[in-house]
Amino acid sequence: MLHLQALSLTSSNQLIRRSFSINFRSMSGTNLHRFVLYAPDYTDAGALQRRLDVRAQHMKAAKGLYDKGLLQIGGGVLHSNGLEASDVTQTLTGSMLIYRAESIEEARKLVESDIYWTSNVWDKERAVITPFLQAKFD
């Protein structure tokens, strides 16, 4: 992993420092494919609390996968009126993530090792893992 910093000027002439990393594993000869996970949460009364109880562990593990080039992007899915809520965490209904893996079986292993899976946050019957083809715009 290569960590870089860049300086840039905003339109109001403020100097800002930006940090970014390049993960060479994701650019290596290994043929990593993308897989999207749509994982709705269980809907029982304790589901949101289970999510909140293990969120820190989930985020730490997700950051580790991101740093290794195995997680491209991820986040919470909100109820349709979630953006209007004073506390958006109360409107979380699931997760959407894009993994990088050699096969769908490898992607499934990543999903099934996530604490949201093992702690019964994500609804195992309704979760969907499917190959994803990223559009190229250049």
Task: Please tell me about this protein's structure.
Strand 1 and strand 2 form a beta hairpin. This protein has a four-stranded antiparallel beta sheet. A two-stranded antiparallel sheet has the order 1-2. It contains three helices and six strands. By secondary structure, it is α+β, with helices and mostly antiparallel strands. The protein is globular, with a radius of gyration of 17 Å.
Which properties best describe this structure?
single chain; 138 residues; 4-stranded antiparallel β-sheet; two-stranded antiparallel sheet; 3 helices; 34% strand
State the gist of this model.
By secondary structure, this protein is α+β, with helices and mostly antiparallel strands. The chain has three helices and six strands, in the order βββαββααβ.
Average pLDDT number:
86
Low-confidence stretches: 24-29
Q: How far apart are the termini?
A: 25 Å
The number of helices is: 3
Gyration radius, in Å: 17 Å
Strand composition percent: 25-35%
Q: Fraction of residues in helices?
A: 10-25%
Sequence of secondary-structure elements: EEEHEEHHE
According to DSSP, the number of beta strands is: 6
Largest sheet geometry: 4 strands, antiparallel
Outline: globular
Strand order of the largest sheet: 4-5-3-6
Structural class: alpha+beta
